[in-house]
Amino acid sequence: MEFSLLNAVIDGLGAGIMGLKNIALIVLPLMVVIELAKDSGVMQWVTGKFQSLAALLQISKESLLPLVVGLIAGIAFGSGVLINATREGYLSKKDRYVVAVFLNLCHSVFEDTLLLVAVGASLPWLLGSRLVLATVVAMLVTRLFPKHSLDTQSQPVELS
Amino acid sequence: MITKQTWINGLRNGIDTIWELAKVVIPVTLVITVLKETGWLGLLADRLGPFMSLLGLPGEAALALVVGYFLNIYSAIAVILVLDLTVKQITVISVMIGICHNLFMESAVTSKMGVKPLPLALLRIVVSVLAGIGINWAF
Fold first, then answer.
1. What is the block-wise mean pLDDT of chain B (139 residues), using blocks of 10 residues?
2. Is the CB of A18 inside 8 Å of chain B's CB atoms?
3. Which residues in chain B are closer than 8 Å to A18, comparing Cβ atoms?
4. Yes or no, beta carbons of A23 and B18 under 8 Å apart
5. Which of A15, A32, A100 sits opposite B120 (nearest CB)?
6. So what's the ipTM on this one?
7. Which of A86, A113, B14, B37 is most buried (most C-beta within 10 Å)?
8. Which of A75, A58, A53 is nearest to A66 (CA)?
């Protein structure tokens, strides 16, 4: 087929705009729902439901908040909360590593997941595999973490 | 408490996200479509085909993984929009990119947590590839 730059530009713009339209239909309501969940107190209720995850990962209650914030709002927000908690000295080295491993594999689940579902991915596979893999790998890390490091409880760390 | 401001914040966040996406998606879909229609993408695909078949993906899909890993999810989405892929293939790419994306920026965030970023970046790549192989096998 003869290449035509004009056709390529039209095709490219078309694909981009159609994709953005599908994404907008999902992202706009999603962002409103997240704000509603925050302001109505549903978000705090959800955090409470994650207690069993903290037990499964063998991390302190204090590391639960950065984990849940990062899981829902994104790794940058999660790390912000985590840096604060670390400064105040609540988190052990193990807590920080396990939260970092979990959040690296799985964060901003609603936004990332739905953006990719908008362009055609399967929702249960996408959401399920990330949550399960992050949990399993974080469980391994927490159980393989060198024992002597457990003694460094509540040591404020130097952050550069 | 839910106020008018709640709704305004939600809509504003939504519009901001779509705007950020548009700034990436439109230029990337344009460039990739030109690459596709000139046949250059096909040349790349022939080289990478054997490796990508492990993931049940066509060779061109390597581009979605590379831009996703090192740039961000938005540009990977732009590549997905241009290629002709099945639901299964889009799911494989999405799981891989969902697990591992934006490595430079997020490694910087990780190091801020007082955690060494390089092992975590490697962990993400390994888990991502294994997950891709697994989804291709199980879907």
1. 89 84 84 86 83 92 92 91 94 97 87 88 96 95
2. yes
3. 81
4. yes
5. A100
6. 0.85
7. A86
8. A75
